[in-house]
Amino acid sequence: MQTIIYKSKAIDSFTREEIIRMLNRSKRRNKKHGVTGCIFYHNNHFIQLIEGEENEIHQLYDNIKEDDRHSQVELLLEKKSNERSMLDWSMAYYDLSGKLAEQGHRRLLLESLFVENLTNSNQDVVEFLKSEITKLIG
Ligand SMILES: Cc1cc2nc3c(=O)[nH]c(=O)nc-3n(C[C@H](O)[C@H](O)[C@H](O)COP(=O)(O)O)c2cc1C
Q: Does domain 2-137 have CATH number 3.30.70.100?
């Protein structure tokens, strides 16, 4: 099992509607290829976790890097593990724009977002992801 976490910046013309349409196609492809993950969107930036069989993940990440709907793709974490972090065989999407404005609520909201979808394995990956999202949402 291979996990990759990266961040990137959406191009200005990539609207919320188009993102949702793109992710619906992605979910179907991910299911077929045994890929799970989650993707966070905030102020035109993405953070995405993808996990699955090593070849699948490398091929998908190569595709994603080439995708001209976003830029500044930066690898944050690459890790082999025995188990998945995500329960669903698709791609959970969290649009965090406009939310989490209040400092005191941020932690609670993040916790509840994660509880729904994560397994108890790979706590280090989960903690890393949380810290990157916290950075992203400022
Ligand atoms: C931010 C972002 C996240 C993406 N996530 C996925 C994904 O999880 N799975 C997927 O199959 N494609 C994803 N894509 C789309 C891929 O870049 C690519 O378009 C897709 O794999 C189809 O490749 P193909 O055109 O070679 O068939 C994502 C694209 C972007 C911009």
A: yes
Please tell me the pTM assigned to this model. Answer: 0.91
Q: Going by CA atoms, what residue is nearest to atom 23 of ligand 1?
A: 63
Name the average pLDDT for the chain. 87
Low-confidence ranges of the chain (pLDDT < 70): 98-107, 114-117, 120
Residues with CB under 6 A from ligand 1: 8, 22, 26, 29-30, 37, 46, 48, 50, 60, 63-64, 67, 69-70, 91
Distance 63 CA to ligand 1 centre (A): 6
Asked if residue 114 lies in contact with residue 49, where contact means CB atoms within 8 angstroms, the answer is no
